Amino acid sequence: SITNSLLGKVKSSPLPSSIPLSELPQRFSDFFHSKVTSIRCNLDSTTVTPPSVLDQPFCGTVWGAFQSVSEDEVKKILTQSTIKTCELDPLPTSFLTHCLDDLLPHLTSIINDSLHSGLFPSAFKSAIVKPLLKKTTLNPEILKNYRPVSNLSFLSKILEKVVLRQLSNHLLTNNLFYSHQSAYRAGHSTETALLKIVNDLLSALDEDKVSLLSLLDLSAAFDTIDHSILLSRLSYSFGISDTVLAWFTSYLTDRTQTISVNGSKSLPAPLHYGVPQGSVLGPILFVLYTQPLSKIIQHHSLYHHSFSDDNQLYISANLAQLQEIIRTSQSCISDVQAWMHNNKLQLNPDKTEMILITSKHNQKSLSLPFSVDLNGTSIHLSSSVRNLGVTLDQNLSFQQHVSRTCQICYFELRRINSIRHYLSQDALKTLISAFVLSRIDYCNSLLAGCPKQLIHKLQKVQNNAARLICRTPKFDHISPVLHTLHWLPVEQRIEYKLLLLAFKSVNNDGPSYLSDLLKFYIPSRQLRSSSDTRLLRIPSFRLKSFGQRKFSYQASVLWNSLPISLRHSNSTLAFKSALKTHLFPSQ
To answer: Nearest Cα to 410, choosing from 435, 429, 434, 390?
Structure first.
């Protein structure tokens, strides 16, 4: 906590100074309520013809009753949960975990009573909301720049986690997840989603095609969900009925939230719509609510990938067909907007972005920038977009992304360096791992095959971080320092990430959309010397600058270079340990 205070990380979000502090909670409460009400009234006031794509009826085993949970299951969930205390908790969470053995039978009984009765406890339906500024660069005087994030009682989250486990099991058993939705699923992440999207875009560039990528933005996505539509969809499309449906009905209804600012609170406000941000079940319920969107997008023959409320649509074609793919994208987004309107969601055209992915050669033939009209709103094509935390430019060079990453990392290193005299070496390593290495590693697999000078920029950041920890002079050789810290260099960190994803993919432990990109090599005839070595087929390509950077190519080449013993590892843990040992000698 001292370290965080010195770094200025533990501080409240900036607040409007033009409003008296005593009035802030109620002003925020009134604003959040009026914002949702305004969107709902706007959606209800006009009639939009929905696209001719209906919800798919459920075909599978109906889920009508919860399974009882044992004390061991509840204990496992409790011990794996982050220890946080909310103002609504009757006792501190640390005290609860300290007395867990004595309280566990009672907690398990409360949870099972809720599951079997189909009632979510009323005491768990309240939320404390602390407004957070969406971005530090936004004006704190404008209320719309704040996001309402709910703080819920610890026990309510434990109950939600129990339900989430059983809900996920039902969805997986009946194959109800949309394959290209990567949020809140084991083995899926923003990185796997971006790998698939970038792989497809690089494939198009390798074939001398252009691609139009559209990033859709929703206004108050979680806050305007219609409960009756959600419950109807859970029943009709996902086979949830009887006690389970009654439990979800109880979970959604009669909820309230109270705004808290510096100890002052607003009056409790009822929540007639939406799912609480900060809850365990809210995100997955939003995913199920919006799942029919995939059918609409597929109907227009666009590729589509989602991560919660972030939707990416893209389509590729020859340069001569550019106007056609623009019209197709425009028609698809109009249908998406119509579906959202009828499902009480609002697409925000002002924040919806588009970018044309093309080679530098084709870019010279285009008269950019131009715009796309979307129901009266003109969307200008951007030269770069930020997608799931990664900056994509028109040529997929990732130069802007790496430059931005380096800039932020150097800023954090300067701040850490200013307080290093107060810290032990272990504390320094922890800080640098959290603030610097995490940024270097975020989605670093996308950089595989990029020019060496781009990777070198990130390597310089890592070298400076290592020198800061070990107090190494500027001109001393860095390799021994990295060995001492047991850090893989940046290039090997990228290889490590790619190979780990490849291992999970070939063992069906990762997203299906990545597994489909990797194919085992099957020789035309079986030779005595070619026993099963689990080699992957290396895809062909036309241009090194694009084709060799695809995940399908990079992962296959790196996988085939591994020793046979590594490719035949029997667990992810064993593979990770052996892989890091294998990559270290390459320094």
So the answer is: 435
